[in-house]
Each structure stands twice: as structure tokens, then as C-alpha cells.
Amino acid sequence: MHSRSFYIKTFGCQMNERDSEIMAQLLSEHGYIETSDSDDSDLIILNTCSIRAKAEQKVMSLLGVIRKQKKKKPNLKICVAGCVAQQEGRQIIERMPHVDLVVGTQNIYQLAELLEHCDKDSVATSLDDRYDIPAFIPAMVDGSSERRPAAFKKFLTIMQGCNNYCTYCVVPYTRGREMSRKVTHILEEANVLVGAGVREITLLGQNVNSYGKTNTVSSSKPDYSFSDLLREVAAIPGLDRLRFTSSNPKDLSDELMRCFADVENLCPQFHLPVQSGSDRILTLMNRKYTRELYLDKVSALRSYSPDIAITTDMIIGFPGETEQDFEDTMSLLEDVRFHGSYSFKYSDRPGTRSAELEGKVDESVKAERLLRFQTRQNEICLEHNRNYVGKVLSVMVEKVEGTALVTRATTNHLVHIADGMRKYTPGETLLAKIVRAGHHSLSGEPG
Ligand code: SAH
Ligand code: SF4
Ligand code: F3S
To answer: If you take atom 6 of ligand 1, which residue's CA is the nearest one?
Structure first.
């Protein structure tokens, strides 16, 4: 007998969110019912992230809480999936014997079978170098599920894994070798989504720019690239908005940047993680590009799409980062004037090369630099946002609270509309005149 109701908690990036949807769909197809409260469920799945130590600590402390739940309810099954599962494997059960099943990143499709037999073999974390991501057609949700309310926008995984081995990063170990999904599978999935009313798709991969480079993508064309794929998905009738993430700047082609000039439903937004403004640190990180190359890509992007909103990721306090290196990061911030950034204190990860490097930066120095960076970034966000005041933007409704609307512009800015004047449904598009700018969002009126 297996449990019948399940609860999934997702940590980490969009790929994990998509994986959680896949697991939820598989379990639903096997007769399980999803609950939104872990207290009501017979099975708890934690889909975990190990990108930084803090992400992993969150999982471990939640597992501690769940241990108490299991004492009260001994039949409760606990499954750890995702990147911590992949990296730690059996050690999770050794440390936390109340965990019943550990499922790695390439094993999620076997979840239902694994649960049937999880008393016998409770660790499934094989990483195949020739992994073929299965075709998987999403069952369209009707919008009533609390965990997946936004059925008008969806993530679509086009590739998985990474071969870049940036020295600080666990992803090549947790997601394995880079694998591109078949074009036919991706297009089929995108068509199903749009056919079911999805208006916005975000294509996902650890480094979408290298789509098709590492294995055959079964296309009729021999050199099928990410921009070819992007153009094919964008051409699906009824798709209003297309986005993608993430990109390593080293593989960003002119061909892809040109899409921003002529693919109409491609949103003018680019998340282009730079990680540092110092060439010395970029080399230590094994990023394989220079500050100059990065700046060249930014100006090329802006020449194709002058209003493009460029965001980034920044690691503060990489081993060996001096005050001068950090100043280079600050000056890059001024040179690019990012529309937004995710910045993090460097965190040692097990098995990575940078964990072995000398010259670790003090936590207090990292904290102080992070604050300086974020303070200046916030000011720049506000300066950018003020430029939108008075402009009319096309926004898509995300949430409806009476006649108040939470919407998103094509640039990915959140736009709050206090009174939408009529009832809207999520996924509808309207014009909004921007009347106020905050650090992290805009306010508008129907315009
Ligand atoms: N593939 C993307 C990044 C994915 S990981 C790229 O190449 O840009 C998401 C972000 O987490 C990274 O951009 C980086 O800023 C951050 N990150 C990864 N490893 C980290 C570490 N050890 N410490 C701090 N931040 C880290
Ligand atoms: Fe990690 Fe991105 Fe570097 Fe790959 S390219 S190793 S995912 S930071
Ligand atoms: Fe985290 Fe794994 Fe994504 S480490 S950021 S969940 S690929």
C-alpha cells in the first residue's frame, strides 16, 4: 500500500519548479491527490536546492521539523528530491533516518515506481552522461491548484545539466552533463501549452545559449541553435510572450541577440549573469569571458533592443577578492546600470574547485561589500523605474484582487494597478499608464 495524498515544497530555481510540476503530474496520474498543507498529506516531497550553503541548511532544518510530524504520524512518507538529493544521496538517509526516499535530478520520472518499492531501495540518484530527457506532455492545470495558480504562464525545460564547471558551482555535479531536449519534444510541449491557453512561456536551461551544441537535437537542420529554437517557439500562434533563462555570456551569439530586434513576442528582458566585474576574479571563476566582452554583449543587446531590461547575478567575496576587485564590480554596475540583480555572498560548496582556494574573504567583509553593492543597485533600480513614469506599457495580469491587479510588463517589471476598472482574468493583457515608481515595482492606471 502506498500513500495517497502528497505535498511538495520546492526550493531553488525555475527548473526545480518545473520538476515539481512534473512530479505532481506523475503522482496524479498514479492516483495520488495533491494537498496544499503538509499536515494533511501522507507523503511529503522536498524538492531541494544546493546552490549555496544557506539553501541546503533550509532543507535540513525543515527535515528536522518534519521528523516531529512523522513521530505523530508514523505512516507518513518523506521523500527528498532535487539537487541536495543528487549531491548527498544516501548520506541524507544516514543523517536523517526518517527520510524514506532520495530521488536525484534525473530520476524524477520514476518517482511513482520508486514510491511503490521504497522500503527496499530508497536511494535513486544515478546520473547518466547520455541522459535523454523524456518527452513529457504537461497535463494542463485548470488554475484551481493553489501551488500552480498561474496556468497562463509556464516554464518549459529545453535542456538540463552544465559542462562549464565554473569553479564555485555545484550544478555540473547535481544536474550532470549538459543535454538538450529534442526539438520535436519541445515544440510539441509548447504547442500543447499554447493550445490550452498559456500566453507566456519561459524556456529553461542552465545555459540556454549552448542549446544543441552538446548532443543531437534531432532537427532536420544540422546546426540547429538556440535562436532557431526560439524563433520556432515564438511563431506558435497565440503565444503572446516568450522569455528564457539562464545564459552564460561566453556563449551569447549575435544571432541570438538579433532575435530581440525582430521577434515580436520575445520580451525585451535579458538575464545575463556576470558574477564579477574583475577580470582576475572572472578567471579564477573559470567564466571564460572578460569584463570587456561582457560590456560588448550589453551594448550589442541594447543596439538591437534599446529598451531591453538587463539583469544579472553577482557573487560577492569570491576567494581572493580584494577591495580593488570589488571596486571593479561596483564600476561595472555603473557601466551597465542593471535593471536589477541577484547578488549573493560567495558560499563554499562541497566538491567545487573554489572551495579549495586560498584567500577566503571574511564573512564580515562579504556582508559589508554585499550591502554596498545592493544599496547602489537599489538606487539604480529606482532611477531606471522613474524613467517609466508617464509611459504606457503593455502589461499582463498575474493576480486579481477585486478590481486591483498585479501585472507584469514585458520587461518583467511588476506593475500594480489599484483599480483595473473592470474584472480581468490572469493572462489578459492591457495597457497601463505608469504613475509611480518604487525600487522594485511600478504603479499604473489603465491607460
Ligand atoms: N547558469 C547560470 C547560473 C545558475 S546558478 C550562469 O552560468 O550564470 C544561479 C546563481 O547562483 C549564479 O549565477 C551565481 O550567481 C549563484 N551561485 C552559484 N554558486 C554560488 C556559490 N557557490 N556561492 C554564491 N553564489 C553562487
Ligand atoms: Fe554553474 Fe552556470 Fe557556471 Fe554552469 S555556467 S557551472 S550552471 S554558474
Ligand atoms: Fe539550485 Fe539545483 Fe537550481 S542547485 S539553483 S535547484 S539547478
So the answer is: 248
Sign of CA dihedral 412, 7, 401, 396: positive
Pairing verdict, β 241-245 and 43-48: unpaired
**How many angstroms does the Cα of residue 230 sit away from the middle of ligand 2?**
21
CA distance 255 to 260: 10
CA-based angle 415:416:422, to the nearest 5? 115
Binning pLDDT at 50, 70 and 90, where does residue 145 land?
Answer: very low
In ligand 2, which atom is closest to the CA atom of 175? 7
- What are the grid coordinates assigned to 447, written together? 491607460
Q: Is the CB of 407 under 6 A from ligand 2?
A: no
Cβ < 6 A, ligand 3 pocket: 12-13, 15-16, 49-51, 82-83, 170-171, 174-175
Give the ligand with the smallest distance to the CA of 19.
Answer: 3
- Does residue 220 have a cis bond before it (omega within 30 degrees)? no
Q: What angle do CA 147, 38, 118 make, to 5 degrees?
A: 105
239 CB within 6 A, ligand 2: no
Domain boundaries, the chain: 5-124, 148-267, 269-387, 392-446
**Are 394 and 412 within 8 A, CB to CB?**
no
Fold equal for 5-124 and 392-446: no
Give the range among 52-61, 134-143, 318-327 with minimum mean pLDDT: 134-143
CATH architecture for the domain at 5-124: 3-Layer(aba) Sandwich (3.40)
The ligand 3 atom at the shortest distance from the C-alpha of residue 14 is 3
Per-residue pLDDT reduced to its tens digit, 367-393: 999 999 999 999 999 999 999 999 999
CATH class of 269-387: alpha beta
Query: Among 2.40.50.140, 3.30.160.100, 3.40.50.2300, 3.30.470.20, what is the CATH number of 392-446?
Result: 2.40.50.140
| Ligand 2 pocket residue status of 172, Cβ below 6 Å | yes
- CB-count exposure of residue 351 (10 Å: 0-12, 13-18, 19+): exposed
CATH classification (class only), 148-267: alpha beta
C-alpha cell at 252: 551569447
